[in-house]
Amino acid sequence: MPIALLALAIGAFGIGTTEFVMMGVLPEIAGDLGISIPAAGNFITAYALGVVVGAPLLTAVAVRLSRKTMLLAMMGVFTLSNALFAFSPNPTTGMLFRFLAGLPHGAFFGAGAVVAATLAGPKRRAKAVSMMFLGLTLANVIGVPGGTFLGQQFGWRATFGVVALIGVVALAAIAKLVPHQHQTTNTSLRGELGAFRKPQVWFALAIVTFGLGGGFASLSYVSPVLTDVSGYDPTSVTLLLSLAGLGMTVGNVLGGRLADRFPLPGLYGAMTALAVVLLAFTVTADSKIGAAVTLFLVGMTSFMVGPMMQARIMEKAGGAQSMVSAAVQSAFNIANSIGAYLGGLAIAGGFGLVSPNVVGAVLAVVGLTLTIASSIYDRKRTPDPAPVVEIGAETGEDDSTVDAVDAVDAEPALPAQDRPEPVPA
């Protein structure tokens, strides 16, 4: 794999850490700024809103830039926004800086996915994209627990100060390792938006929304499940969440490998496995060991889908890949919101803390159904190849006769010449 993928993975690690570490330091932020924990939770919403808005907006603005320049610009905005958030004097400015920090998220991953796929070539495209996203999943294994510990010991501002430093390292790595990749000469905003006229692009975005939404429905409420249903001590939750992050990392790598070798069968298998694992979690949640094992599997099966769909949507988009790759990140965050919202409705409806897993299984089945529908649509749109007729076999002619006929057929036709009519005597 190209060394440039390391630079992309470092950037992804920083982005993943700032996105998810907020859940671990909410109490510290609430106490320092004098607000309630639910009010502090709005910082999570502000970031997600920035992702949804920034993915198409910044990609459109930077459509004519080289992808390396775009990556540097996005990482620069990310680094500055996190540094400013670390010095926020009040909740209002904090909300603004969290929104700004979310803006470059989708555009960075969109451009990064195209760079990774281009460097690796078509046969290893999905694996290369998964290597970039490896940084995002490792953030859940290392960045989030480490950032949470740092925030508990030295304050939440130290956590986001370190995130800004990671951004500086990513900037240096991108500048040094990523080669310049200029957009194609016919790249334009109109051309990028033209990809959204293709039904398969919308199929892919819907599959991401529902498929990953199933995993998020479960993971959004896993902490109370582990403490109130499985019987774990609250101090063990951070370690268990790292186990889920490890599952995400394994799933991300496995999904990339499957996508290059068995694109559609791999996607069918991942969606089916996710639905089965989520249903199993409703039973295994009563056991400490069962809950831990299933939590790992939920993380793994959820994140198998990501690299598969990123590779698929880039294939279906043709030459206009930047905008649709960024749109995948918007779909990812919409999946997060939908999964958490529907899972919360199930709990509020009195169906119990494990009920979001049933909701997630239903969403995964919807994602599987959309995948099947997308495949059927593909087959209907692809004409069958014309039948090849063996001339010798049909007519009984030997090969020499056929070759002779072919040779005659290959001769260019001579132009007809007008001959003068004979003049009668």
Automatic annotation (TrEMBL):
GO MF entries: transmembrane transporter activity
TM region positions: 43-63, 70-87, 99-120, 132-152, 158-179, 200-222, 234-254, 266-283, 289-309, 330-352, 358-377
Membrane topology: Multi-pass membrane protein
Localization per record: Cell membrane
Keywords: Cell membrane, Membrane, Transmembrane, Transmembrane helix
Record InterPro entries: MFS, MFS_dom, MFS_Efflux_Transporters, MFS_trans_sf
Gene3D superfamilies in UniProt: MFS general substrate transporter like domains
Originating organism: Saccharomonospora azurea NA-128
Database matches in PROSITE patterns: MFS
Domain Major facilitator superfamily (MFS) profile stretches: 4-379
Keyword Transmembrane attached: yes
Xref: Pfam families: MFS_1
Protein name in UniProt: Arabinose efflux permease family protein
GO CC annotations on file: plasma membrane
